[in-house]
Amino acid sequence: MKSLTIQDVNAIVNGEIVGFTSHNISGLEQIQKANKNQATFIGNRKFAALWKDSKASVAIVNDNLDIEPGENRALIKVKNADLAMAKLLDAFTPEAPHFETEIHPTAVIDSSAKIGKGSRVGAGCYIGKNVILGDSVTLYPNVTVLDETTIGDFTTAWSGTIIRERSEIGSHCIFHNNVSIGADGFGYRPSDDGRGLVKIPHIGNVVIGNGVEIGANSCVDRGKFSSTILGDGCKIDNLVQIAHNCVLGRSCIMAGSSGLAGSVTLGDGVVIGGSASIKDHTTIHSGATVGAGSGVMNDVPAGKTVLGYPAVDSREMLKQWVALRKLAR
Q1: Catalytic annotation present for 285
Q2: Long-range CB contacts (< 8 A, 24+ apart) of 260-266?
Q3: I need a labelling partner for 290 at 20 to 30 A (CA). Which of 121, 157, 261, 308 fits?
């Protein structure tokens, strides 16, 4: 277990120490649950009032907050407590699961596959024909990578992930448990005789940029003709659906249980709130935000925030809600 002095902690977050504590820090915790050997974080005034009764001996705080450290306790003032928290959490991150050997003997690897230097393949993995893994790729037990797929350096796929054929994956990506990449898109048409549905083949692939993270049980379907594309730095939460031929720009965020129908385009830096749904062939331009639970039926201009079902300008929707509340009284 790590044990850091207040000076050690400050060396990591690069802030200004106010006060002093003789207690060493061995972990991190929420402000109401922390003990004397744990640090906590205060990023806004809402939590500042809780500091007085907290048992934590150290708090990382935004430098615009007026808080007194108290007896044998210290504050470390920083510009952004959330970013400082990320640095300190990284310092306390436990070691990843251990690999006895780089390539587990129960892994099945086609003879045509190429495995880069320092890559690790866990028990029960399958790697298909002409797959290329870059350097320092990690596949935890029971990951499947099918034919003609390429995966860039330092990418990690956790157990249960399936990467279908012809996918192109960048470097420094993280795929959490049971991610599905490259499954068929959802496409059917009524048959000529009216007795059933005809499946529309999807012969494209998925292209994922660098630094993309996809949460557990999320799905990215392959394109009907060309590619479903996720740009560099996109962050996808758990239980998210990205349908065939969607194109995401750089650094988009999609929160849990949200979904894109087919051929949706997101510009750079778009934020999709939890459980939001986006209609097919819709474009959400760069910097726009879709509120949680919203249903987007039309294109959204750059920088706009929309809310509701169907989604409209957030200020307009809030006015509608206020008016409805008044009518209900």
Answers
A1: no
A2: 262/185, 262/186, 262/187, 262/224
A3: 157
Cβ neighbour number for residue 59 with a 10 Å cutoff: 28
Q: What is the pTM of this model?
A: 0.94
Strand order in the sheet with 132-133: 114-115, 132-133, 150-151, 168-169, 205-208, 227-230, 247-248, 265-266, 283-284
Tokens of residue 64, six digits: 């615009």
What residues of the chain score a pLDDT lower than 70? none
Q: What is the pLDDT of residue 315?
A: 86
Tokens of 28: 């991190």
Long-range contact set of residues 242-246: C-beta below 8 Å, sequence gap at least 24: 242/218, 243/185, 243/186, 243/280, 244/184, 244/185, 244/186, 244/187, 244/202, 244/204, 245/185, 245/204
Q: What are phi and psi of 91, to 5 degrees?
A: -65, -30
